[in-house]
Amino acid sequence: MDQLLFAQAPNIDWRIRNEAQKLTAASDQGKRAKAAWQDCMEGKGLVLDPDDGRPSAQYSAQGKEAEITAALTEAQCAVDTGAAQQLYDLQAQYEAAFIDAQSAQVQAFDAERADVERDLDAAIAGT
User: Fold this and answer.
1) What are 90-93's contacts with CB under 8 Å, separation 24+?
2) Is 52 helix (H, G, I), strand (E, B) or coil?
3) Are 104 and 59 in contact (CB under 8 A)?
């Protein structure tokens, strides 16, 4: 049970990823990338959800074809504007800084994760 709790807990890896996502979204560079992405989608006629800037739920309600078209437009704008790459690069920079700053905690997590994986592999194998 301890191994399952560990696997499901918001460990250091989750905290680093979560904090990096927040910093990315709050940064000027992140805001510019997201705005360019949204401008592209709106320029192609998509209606965006004001809460998250993604295609609105209306496309799901209109059926699979509308939902797929909206998703493809969103993806194409992510590529065309370079926004997806910029956001992931920025998040990776924040994550790397957190990993460096919290290296002892990351190493302890890695060691415990390896132990948990061995225990779970053994349980699955029935040994």
Assistant:
1) 90/24, 90/27, 90/29, 90/30, 90/33, 91/17, 91/20, 91/21, 91/24, 92/20
2) coil
3) no
Instruction: Report d(CA 71, CA 54) in Å as an integer.
Output: 9
Q: Please check whether residue 124 is in contact with residue 7, taking contact to mean a CB–CB distance below 8 angstroms.
A: no
Which of the four pLDDT bands, split at 50, 70 and 90, describes residue 42? very high
| 114, 89, 85, 41: CA torsion to nearest 10 | 110
Find the helix or strand (DSSP H, E) in which 89 lies.
helix 83-101
Q: Looking at the 3D structure of the chain, how many domains does it have?
A: 1
- Total-model pTM: 0.76
Taking all residues of the chain, what is their mean pLDDT, rounded to a whole number?
92
Rounded to an integer, what distance in angstroms lies between the CA atom of residue 45 and that of residue 17? 32
**Domain hosting residue 20, numbered range:** 2-125
Per-residue pLDDT, 69: 96
- pLDDT at position 116: 87
The values of phi and psi at residue 16, to 5°, are: -65, -50
